[in-house]
Structure formats: C-alpha cells, structure tokens
Description:
GMP Synthetase, Chain A, domain 3, 3 strands, single chain, alpha+beta
Amino acid sequence: xEKIKNILxxxxxxxxxxxxxxxxxxxxxxxxxxxxxxxxxxxxxGLLTIKAANSIVAQEIQLKSTQIIKKINQKLGKxxxxxxxxxxxxx
Length: 91
C-alpha cells in the first residue's frame, strides 16, 4: 500500500496541482490565524481574499492587516501573503 504523502507528491507534479494545494494550505493557516473573526475565501498571487461579517469588522481587520499578514506568514514559514482583500458577507 502506498503512503498518501507519496501519492500527493506524485499527483502534484503529474497534474500540476501545486498552486491549488498551496492556496488551500494558506487558507487553512489563515483560518487558524483568524480567531473566528473572518473566513478565508481564496488565495492567489499574494492576495488573500477573506469574508467579513460587516463593514465594521472589515475595517477592524484592515487596521490589523499588517499583523494578520505577519502572523500567517510566520506560520507558513515564508512570506506568501502580501495583502488582504475583503468581501462583506454574513458568516
């Protein structure tokens, strides 16, 4: 029986899904860093898109965005997230 890690590594190169796997990992780390305040939606080219419950929450996140980005990048071990974009929706 083949280990799942080996399957994923092989699939990653065969099907070129490395970008999607990386984006998924970044969203997962961002969700951990969110403390339930926001919900990560997507990541592409250094831009993390998140869902905020309302404009007040989005404004608070905007004020703390530098610290949030730093926290996410520290957990990732590299500087992957450059900026945050907001979508206002009920979560």
